[in-house]
Design brief:
- The protein has 160 residues and is mostly helical.
- The protein has one domain.
- It is built from seven helices and two strands, in the order ββααααααα.
- It has a two-stranded antiparallel sheet with strand order 1-2.
- A hairpin with a 2-residue loop joins strand 1 and strand 2.
- The longest helix is centred in the last third of the chain and has 27 residues.
- It is globular and about 50 Å long.
């Protein structure tokens, strides 16, 4: 288990076999009987944390928008460990790395929130809002940290 701290928040990254969030796959592994373990968002594959954050149709769509926005060639990942390994080896400046980490952490948080809203409060979050929420929340986290003085307009144009 690893912890990454950035922008006044921490994201807990679990080993693939120690995943703790209540995805359908984890609930099934804990002995809960479910009628359907397919992804709530795409109904295509078994719902796991990695699927929800990296390979679900909606995740792929959001990742694609973020790749265009940040304007760097981010590869595709299967899980958090692959993302972290790539991020640690990426040659951006420390400020760029912090901003990119905040963006990806926000992307993950928003996708998980969307999944939960889809399950518990359908209609509360709209798919069209996800990208804008990622840009807004990641900006606020970086700005509120106190060390990053980028304007909202500049953030929207070139966050890194």
């Amino acid at each position: 288990m690893a912890w990454m701290n950035s922008c006044h928040f921490a994201i807990r990254i679990e080993e693939p076999d120690g995943e703790k969030l209540p995805s359908h796959l984890n609930l099934l592994a804990r002995g809960l009987k479910l009628n359907d373990i397919r992804c709530l968002l795409c109904s295509y594959r078994v719902e796991s944390l990695n699927h929800t954050l990296f390979s679900c149709e909606i995740a792929l769509e959001i990742w694609s928008m973020v790749r265009i926005w940040v304007d760097i060639p981010i590869p595709f990942f299967e899980n958090w460990l692959e993302w972290l390994s790539w991020h640690q080896g990426w040659t951006g400046s420390s400020r760029q790395k912090m901003r990119l980490y905040a963006i990806v952490a926000t992307l993950s948080w928003i996708l998980w929130r969307y999944r939960n809203a889809f399950l518990f409060d359908p209609g509360k979050m709209k798919k069209q809002e996800l990208y804008d929420l990622i840009r807004l929340y990641s900006y606020n986290w970086c700005k509120d940290r106190g060390k990053d003085c980028i304007s909202w307009t500049d953030w929207l144009i070139k966050p890194l």
